[in-house]
Amino acid sequence: MYRRPSSQIDAALDRSSTSAKSMASRRTSPLATRMSHIEPFHVMSVMRRADALEVQGRSITYMVIGEPDFSSAEPIVQAGIAALQAGKTRYAPDLGLPALREALARSYAPDIAVDAERVVVTPGSSGALQLVFATMLSPGDEVLLADPGYPCNRHFVRLFEGVPVSIAVDASTSYQLTADLIRRHWTPRTVAVLVGSPSNPVGSVIPDAEMERIARAVHELGGILIVDEIYHGLVYDTTLSSAVGAPGRVFVVNSFSKYYGMTGWRVGWLVGPQEYIAPIEKLVQNIFIAASTPAQYAALEALKPAARAELERRRQLFLERRDYLLPALRRLGFGIPVEPQGAFYIYADCSHFTSDSQAFALALLEEAGVAIAPGLDFGCYRCKRHVRISYANSLENLQEGVRRIGAFLAGSRNGRMRKEDTMFPHPVAPLTRPAPAWY
Amino acid sequence: MYRRPSSQIDAALDRSSTSAKSMASRRTSPLATRMSHIEPFHVMSVMRRADALEVQGRSITYMVIGEPDFSSAEPIVQAGIAALQAGKTRYAPDLGLPALREALARSYAPDIAVDAERVVVTPGSSGALQLVFATMLSPGDEVLLADPGYPCNRHFVRLFEGVPVSIAVDASTSYQLTADLIRRHWTPRTVAVLVGSPSNPVGSVIPDAEMERIARAVHELGGILIVDEIYHGLVYDTTLSSAVGAPGRVFVVNSFSKYYGMTGWRVGWLVGPQEYIAPIEKLVQNIFIAASTPAQYAALEALKPAARAELERRRQLFLERRDYLLPALRRLGFGIPVEPQGAFYIYADCSHFTSDSQAFALALLEEAGVAIAPGLDFGCYRCKRHVRISYANSLENLQEGVRRIGAFLAGSRNGRMRKEDTMFPHPVAPLTRPAPAWY
Q1: CA-to-CA distance for A307 and A301, rounded, in angstroms?
Q2: ipTM score of the complex?
């Protein structure tokens, strides 16, 4: 909309401004309508209480955080320092340092040939998801997502006036969408599907063959497939191809935060269809300018062999922790029907102990000093009977956490803690479905 | 929207999926409707051509860039290095490092008391503007902006389905909105006004008394005032208070990029009304997680005396450059009715030479090797008769640029370059309005 300069405003506008004034203050606290659909992280109430307890001198075992428990690997840190010493403190090119885009493109070789032109470096994978959704979503457009899933995804859709359509998934599909589910839920308003592999909060993966089926289904339906590969480097017992090579219109979103251990630097990337790069560049210029320059130099080093060796060592540590924590939690009575094959989370059914996982998480913190994430952060479906337990902590701390959870559950069962009688009033049976054949 | 799990889908959904399939591919290239309203930076065509010419061995004088021509000051760089050496590479708190929020709040003292709770550290001021508009704008809400103005502002509004209302301003108000203009253009759909002081592209400021009137007007109208203070430290010949202390609902957006010379680090901040901080925190968690951690430690140092001394030295350099460039451009025949008092830009009327400032900028680059920004990047109003010339370059380079522009104009006037005859077909008289009394 465009208005003429003051010298050319006619009397009509002066009149209208009088009526405008009479309309003033009609909104007492102007908040966008979207804000009522965007939720805070419920785990923040756990985190805030944990902080308060620590200030009081309590020992807290953290099994809650979506962040590796390491500082960035030394070669990465040294590359950041070298960039700063070399004065690399000015704006980077909008789509990223050419050398980093090239290195990221090459990182998919030899399996998949990716043109560096299709790679966009972003301020974290959050920035990548913003770009992808802002570029494709008109108001009312639907995006299919798995529930449970990473909570921000549906909020990104809502941010740009799209409609997130959460599809309940369970152990029968390893808590993942499938080509079949996508076809069944597709409507004329659907424009895109987002899947995560490995997923947060479950840590389950979509095997290559199913990803291929998903991509073909979305392509046939005329939609766009977005694959969140943020935990892609953190895979155990299996191999996983990138969806970069899948058929149709596919966006792959990735990050230097998790496998590369660079959370605080804020660098991610996307690989998109060639025809979307020009619109995305336009958006980057307007809404980000560029990702952090020193962080991009550090990220470049993260792709090289010296850092890689340390990152692989860390991946082995995550594997050891998973292999400790998974059977330990099962022994305690948590229902974990699908073995997590990636990321650093276990999505556990706690309905053997409670019908309110948020109250359970807070009681566990209060009574036993263990911080975990309530299921409510990851969707609606059966969220009150699930919690997410992170193994981004040392083996020693995880052992202590398991000991504390065990003592808490024993105390709760023995009726020692009166509070639990009202907090966990309706114990329900744990999930027992077997994992599907393709898993 | 929420869908039941696959096991509970009824036959109706299966039927609808058949009709969905027949609707597939109805959109051949799904781009959001908003994308047709968001423009790329037109200056990029100038920049790309400049790059190409440099590759060919041509010497280019850059008077185009919105970025200081210095690397970050040494104390800032050293603080970044120290943070990295100390392993500060993990997520920062969502609203920013407490020490940085405190230091930013204190930076408004003793003039204005600001509670650190109202300060949010963001990924650049771009991040701050995203948060502000996403939090307040429902689809169709109008935001008043000055034309000419920073192009991204109207695109941020459009990004969140708001309607940017560009109000043409000229020298009669120092190219700024006024309380009177705001009252005249306010409608029942208007929810906010954005002003920039010092402004980009003009470098004009809104004097404290007028800012107070603007804030009171917006408050009376029941709206929100957003003040872009990104160039706030770069003010010459005058003093300027922050609008942080202005009455009503006021958001102030600022950045470590310009005065603090930290463009590539990507750190900015906002100070908002207390009641907006919780909604904004919810958004930060979802769309950014946090601003870059090492960059926040560096920014903390930027507020301390050692860095300040160097930043003030640089401000003096900008002042010297302005004092050279302004009369030099006027002598060449550019119309600059308002003396810029801040930032590092001169918004110049080139209608004495051309009726198409974009063609003029490209011809100046091609023939004389000087890169400047066309007015089209800053709005619609009289944009074809204006260019933005940046003095974020050394005095020597600016002198060379002026020499080149002079030779180009002389050649053009003498009819030496046939091309210009068609490129500048309709010379029009330059603006001659005097600056207003309050300026």
Answers
A1: 7
A2: 0.89
